Amino acid sequence: MYDPIPRAQPPPVDTDRWWRWRRNPLRRASDLLQAWIGLVLAVTVGITAPVAAWAVGTIVHDRFTAVAREQARTRHHITAVLVADVARHPEPGSAEAREAQYPAEVRYTAPDGRPRTATTDVTPGLLAGNRVRVWSSAEGTLTEPPMQPEEIRNRAVGSGIVATLTVIVAGALAYRLTVRVLDQRRMRSWEAAWQQAACRWTTFP
After folding, report:
1. Which of 79, 115, 161, 192 is such that its CA lies 20 to 30 A from the CA of 13?
2. CA distance 198 to 191
3. pTM score
4. Domain spans of the chain?
């Protein structure tokens, strides 16, 4: 059945975000100040964010490049022998199986000539006695391979992204704090104005 009476609708809301920049009787000095502070913060963040990302990314890249060079100098590729069989992957031949690594005990000769045993990650399904290549530190401890350029680049990019987000969040917090302070000033101003108006309204001739 057709309803001849239309449903009630909320009144339209003015969402003009630029009203603080336009002259109007309701604009206060604090409104214009808030607009200018927002503009300055936006420009500052827009300039600072990419600079911070580049600077932090460069520092991180240089630092880890030096670390990788030191690792390449002090770490060595050696051959180790499996002490026991390694468990097989439940889905042999799958993409996951090709990427999987299982912990296994191996025996190897340290740089000082002494035999040692340790646990390292190897390909699943290997048998006892198989030889595997592992990385050893100068002290004879099994370790991770030296950092690769791709890993260094990823860390540098990640650090640059974090720096960018930090600048953006700092700018947003600064703006929110500014708005809060201005709102408090406006509330005090409104309270004083209402008190003056109340005095006039409640005074009899």
Report:
1. 192
2. 10
3. 0.71
4. 28-68+151-192, 76-144
